[in-house]
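Please describe the entry underneath.
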Amino acid sequence: MITRVSPNVSVSLYGSSPALIYPVYRRRFYVLFVFMFLAFNQCLFWLTFSPVSQSAQTYYHISESTVNLLLNWGPIIFIPCLPLAYLLLNKRHGLRKIILLLAIVCFIAASLRILPIMFISPSNSSFTSISLLFIHLGQILNAACGPLVMAPVSQLSCLWFGPNERTRATTLAIMAASFGSTFGFLVHPWIVTTSEQIPQLLYLHFILALIALLMTLGYFPSHPPHAPSPAAQSLMDTSMNENNENSLRNYMTDIYRCFSIPSFKLLCSAGGIQGGVFAAWTGLFANILAREKFTEQQSGWFGFSCSLATIIGGLITSTIADTPYFRRSFKSIIFIMLIGCFLSVLWFQLCVRTIFNDEPIFQPTVMSIALSVTFAGLFQGSALPLIYESLAEITFPLPESLSASVLVQLNNITALILLFIPPSLYNLLNFVVLVSVGACTLMMMYVNIDYKRRNIDERKQ
């Protein structure tokens, strides 16, 4: 592949000789890095208090249910804000507006959370009530940034990267958010060993938000000077069209057009349901494994290994999928990964108490639980970026952000429903995860991925 970075020189995307049509620019890596940094921050801030729940309860004099609410603001606020994020993204210079808004709101959210500790002593009788107001506002604003992180991933990769790089770029954009939560699970308890160290964590978040804001304000263009592919050119032409009417009514019409495609319904349902139940399941490891005599610290490491495996799996399969031999093998790869995920969840199910068995079938050990959840995360993460890219292919020429927004909306609705399952029914949640992954695997058998976007790219090279 020949890469040139001046505005007047182009690249060959599929051959060894130059094709004077579609250039790629080195600045695309900076754009992707800034977006990844913002996505990392948003998920890291969302998970501020849960990994250090006991310290947060002691410092702010609050209950465990309040700490859980601070976490649950994520999916609660995400659902109504997502359509608004989509509408803004598909306005003129929408990507830049979205990223600027993301950086500014995340900075405001981080700032609000440190204001009480700057001006009020923890011993003050009003400290708890005032701090809670600002913390809730900060968590709600940060939660509103969730759609700004998840909706643009496929659109950003299409707009800035060539066809042979898109899947890897999408994966990195998605996994940056996952890495933020993984990092939070591991590092937050290390920073906060006593309740008095909660302010140190909040100040660290403020510094990260400030750096990300300065990087975004310093340079983040709305699009490259020239499109890197025919699909990107189509996207740029649509967004730059002054007569482009982008309203909530059109958004609902486009969603209806998506769901009129049978393969979209199957694949979006499979990806959204599987992702939602998986997110809820991994977030409740400590509760699920408590009956098997595992400690909170052990459950935290299980969650960390699962999240890390998700990132690694996505990077591996996206690299494979960008090679010429596998560019049209998304269905096969996703299907194989879902089978692997199902078998891993089944292994976990056999190592814990279930709704059918009062005692585990296999003796639960640290090694067996760690391996089962790690492989489950590896296979689930391997399928995720290919589901995003497959939906973008199926719905082309509709914007990539449309299919991504529908997928993450279904993901969050599913996770929010499962978060309300009472602790007495956590064994049922294990079974729901197993059945859901199995059903999604069966749905994948009937999906037909039509590579509309790739066909356009290759036909015009």
